[in-house]
Design brief:
The protein is mainly β and 187 residues long. It is 4% helix and 45% strand. The chain has two domains: 60 residues, Cadherins (Immunoglobulin-like, Sandwich), CATH 2.60.40.60; 111 residues, Cadherins (Immunoglobulin-like), CATH 2.60.40. This is Cadherin- member 1.
Length: 187
């Protein structure tokens, strides 16, 4: 009949070990009770474990730990954008850091703007080619709007934030070519 040798486990490389502990008889590796692992700070650890019996025979194993990202950061708008609504999400991994954009509200309430859901770029609807068309649709001479733009991440649970974007539209006429110019600024 075979006898099972008593093994003792210990860490060999102690660079990251302060965050982990090993149960000497079972070899189960735990995080220290006080240790905080955050994928945004560091997502991968590796170290060696040595298993040794009473006779001094041992074996080494390299252990790789991957810290999974939790969706723990909401998107945040960048304060200095012009023509594009930009938000960032400090989560480390997809889908937690992938942002979708939407116009939640426009004042005055009308339907003349589109937003690219992936990039946040705000544009006039494709059929709007002049100030006259805008004024005909809106029945107002002042061409300024307030849009509430939402940035939502794709994590579970999903987080979102909103920003008010002020838009002033002027018409530039040069050499008989008319262009609608949109100025954006964050409120």
């Amino acid at each position: 009949m075979y006898q099972r040798a008593k093994l003792g486990m210990c860490f060999i490389k102690c660079v990251v070990i302060c965050r982990f502990l090993i149960q000497p008889t079972s070899g189960i590796i735990y995080t220290q009770p006080w240790a905080s692992l955050d994928a945004e700070v560091r997502s991968k650890y590796n170290f060696y474990v040595k298993a040794e019996d009473a006779e001094g025979k041992y074996s080494l194993a390299e252990v790789f730990v991957t810290v999974l990202d939790l969706n723990d950061h909401p998107p945040a708008f960048n304060d200095n954008f012009l023509e594009k609504t930009m938000a960032i999400d400090d989560d480390a991994e997809v889908p937690n850091n992938v942002i979708e954009y939407a116009i939640m509200k426009a004042e005055p309430d009308n339907n003349i703007f589109d937003i690219d859901a992936d990039t946040g770029e705000i544009k006039l609807k494709s059929y709007i080619k002049s100030i006259a068309i805008i004024q005909n649709i809106t029945k107002k001479r002042d061409c300024s709007w307030s849009l509430v733009v939402q940035a939502r991440d794709r994590g579970q649970p999903s987080f979102s934030t909103t920003a008010v974007v002020k838009i002033d539209i002027t018409e530039a006429v040069s050499c008989n070519i008319s262009a609608v110019v949109v100025y954006l600024y964050l409120q």
